[in-house]
Structure formats: C-alpha cells, structure tokens
Amino acid sequence: MILSNKIVHVAVGVIIQNDQVLICWRDASLHQGNRYEFPGGKLEPGESPAQALKRELKEELNIDIQHTVRAQLLYFNYPEKTVCLHIFKVTEFTGQPIGQQQQAVLWVHKDQLATYRFPDANAPILRMLKLPEQYIITQPLAQAQSIQDWLDWHVKHVPLTSWLYVREKTMSPTAYKNIIKSFSNFRADLHLVADFSYINNLTDQLDELHGVHLSERNLMRLNQPLQISAHLLSFAACHDQAAISQANLLNVDAVLVSPLHSTLSHPQQSALGWEKWQALSEQSHVPVFALGGVAPANLKQVQKASGFGVAGIRAFLSS
Questions:
Q1: For position 83, what pLDDT does the model report?
Q2: Which residues touch 296 (CB under 8 Å, ≥6 apart)?
C-alpha cells in the first residue's frame, strides 16, 4: 500500500553468479546506512528502470550488464516518502565489479545472506533469491494405476534438487500427508511444495516442505496475507488481472500465469499468447512463472517477456 504522495523510484541489481551474490556496503551517512545493500540507484527523469540499472551499475561497479531478469516491484513506506524498488536479477555481465566510490563489495553465497544486515526494504529480495527458475508439477494421479505407481514414477523421473509442486486434489488428507512423507523419505533432495488445500493437515510436516501453492480460487478467497510458517514460499495460480492484483495485495512470493499456450491437460482454457501473457506479467509485483506449453528451453524467451521462470509437467520430467 502506498502511503505517501512522494514516490522515489530506484533500480536495484541482484548480481548472481554460481549461487554467489554481490553485496555492497552502504555508508552510515545515507538513509538506512551502515548496512549492506544490493547495488543500484534512483531513476533519472525519462529513464526506464532497465536503463537506470545499466547506468548505475556502470557508475557504481564499472560493469556492463548483458542479461537481466525482471523479479520484483517493492513499495516501502517511510515517514517522509515511499520508495519503489524495481528489482532485477543480473545473471550475465562483463567487467570485474569494483566499488567506484570506494565502497566495499563482497561476494556471498545466497544461503548466507540472512546473516548480513540489510535495509528494511531488502527483506523480500532475500526470499526471491530462494526461488528456482524451474517449477515442476506432478503428473495427474488418474494416469497411474495406483498411488504407489504414481509415487514410484515421480521418485524416478523428477530431476535432482527440483522444486516439486505435489498437485493432487483427489486424495484424502491422510493420503496426501503420506505422499508428502514418502517424497521426503525417498527424495530428500527435493524442494516440496504442498497444495494450500491440505496445509492445515500438514502442521507436523512443515519442516519437510519448502512452499505452498494456492489455486486461483484459494487466492481470491483470502482477505489477508497468508498466515504460514515463515520459511515457506508461497506460489499462486493466476489467469487474469484480478488474480494478479490479489496476489500483489497479499504479498505472495511468486505467481504462475497461465496458460501461455494451449495444453492437453487444460484444453478448455484459451491460451493467452505471448503479448497478453507479457502484459499480465508486467502487472505483477512478484516473480512470474510461465505455465502452459513451455519447457526448460523456453526460459530465456520467457525472461525476455518479463517473466522470471518456467513451470510445467511433462517437459520438465526426465525420460
């Protein structure tokens, strides 16, 4: 919620290479100073966020960015102003980052960032850095002869360390709970995401989970932000502008906008196509995953269209 008439727009670059993230020391004389920060700066008149980011990283670190990923739009209210942070992941650049104003720069593994002190407005960025670029969804149970066959197939075919949304709405709460336990036992490497409809039945298994997934129906029924364990990331399905607005309001961590293309699993849904998909994605304040007829090979194309990552079923599972 924006509480001030004065909005300061700032472009921020989260520079990441091989799970190492670059952070800079913020001088004590600056607002929210004497802390580490992600590099960037205010937009100049007539600049787009992407243009400002390119200029700022050249001025601050003497690097030229080659590839960025639109990630977040964060509003943070201070007594005297509202700051709007346009967050980009920077995954390709040329040059060696060196502080051009004698500011200290440091490469830190992304899993260690929580041990450093950042300005208050940077907290959601740390959550964004936990998100994957690929989000896998389980095959429909109806395609298997039994729950055990369904489980065994996924244990064998889901790639290592994947984020896996266990989507199966026909199971009883007890059966779903057992499936989460089985996945955790047989594939401890997986980042499991549970369906929101079952979350109240999984209170003693939260440590086995990394996220929770809301259907668009569940999302639209909420009237306040999710009350879930802080370590869980929240994903929400969105098909239109109303759902995107609701996700922005409730501060979910990421959304899946679909269907980009027509799919066999949802033939009744009209495909958005690239133009409409990008227009919807640009309204999101949080990272956007493309779902519907996409594959891992489409990642760069999705990111060029303002997306963050790709999601799907068949194309993401090993043969």
A1: 87
A2: 134, 310, 315, 316
Residue 29 confidence (pLDDT) above 70:
no
Say yes or no to pLDDT of 36 above 80.
Answer: yes
* Angle, CA of 288, 305 and 220, to the nearest 5°: 30
| DSSP per-residue string spanning the chain | ----S-EEEEEEEEEEETTEEEEEEEPTTSTT-SEEE--EEEPPTT--HHHHHHHHHHHHH--EEEEEEEEEEEEEE-SS-EEEEEEEEEEEEES----TTS--EEEEEGGGGGGS---GGGHHHHHHTT--SEEEEPPPGGGSSSHHHHHHHHHHHSPTT-EEEE--TTS-HHHHHHHHHHHHHH-TTSEEEEEGGGGGG-GGGGGG-SEEEE-HHHHHH-SS-----TT-EEEEEE-SHHHHHHHHHHT-SEEEE--SS--SS-TTSPP-HHHHHHHHHTT-SS-EEEESS--GGGHHHHHHTT--EEEESGGGS--
Give the CA dihedral 230, 201, 317, 218, nearest 10 degrees.
-70
What local confidence, expressed as pLDDT, does residue 79 receive? 81
Torsion of CA 280, 230, 317, 145, to 10 degrees: -110
For tokens 């992600």, the residue is 38
Q: Nearest CA to 304 among 281, 286, 272?
A: 281
Q: Is the pTM of this model over 0.85?
A: yes
Nearest to 316 by CA among 112, 103, 162: 162
Judged against a pLDDT cut of 90, whether residue 254 lies above it is answered with yes
Going by their DSSP bridges, the two strands 233-238 and 64-77 should be labelled as unpaired
Q: Of the candidates 72, 181, 186, 185, which has an alpha carbon nearest to the alpha carbon of residue 194?
A: 181
